[in-house]
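Model it.
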Amino acid sequence: MQALKDSRARRGGIAAVFCVVALVAAGCGGDDDTPATEGAPPADEGTAPAEAPADTSTPGGDDTSAPGDGQSVVLGDDDEHRVTEAGDVSIQCDGGGEIDVTAAASVTITGQCDEIDIEGTGATVTIESSDDVDIDGSENNVTADRIGDLDIDGDGNTVDVAEIDEIDVDGSNNTITYGGSPDIDDEGSGNTIEPR
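Modeled.
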């Protein structure tokens, strides 16, 4: 019987040694809870990691930004960008892209965009060219060289566009001056829509 107890004790001791070795090996990543990267130099505990500079382009995806003055963004065909805070921002549409302006920002948009949505109040937006511009916000000032389709559901907006194909207005007290011979549908009230 004593031999059986000694055998169990040895197996328990061996199992305990394996557990300790496994725990030590798992904890070899350093003092913190993050695992070590092979070949990486040890972290200096007295220094905080440097933050990477912000990437202002949004290739292949959606980007929400809080632009600082002078921020510049380049959008490709399927890219989206949201302007969510006041400030000056320049956006270049490189063959497409969608832009949402939700803040009282000063936004300059160059190139050919797919769609621009202006949902905030008090924005100043300058547009080179866009297939669609939707203004759901109020008291925005929009100047454009070329717009395919302009839809305004907001109130008190001012729009001046050099060339446009279609104007649809459901909001009230908007002022639109235009160039070209657009189709016009005014279902709002108190709107002024007239050629330049």
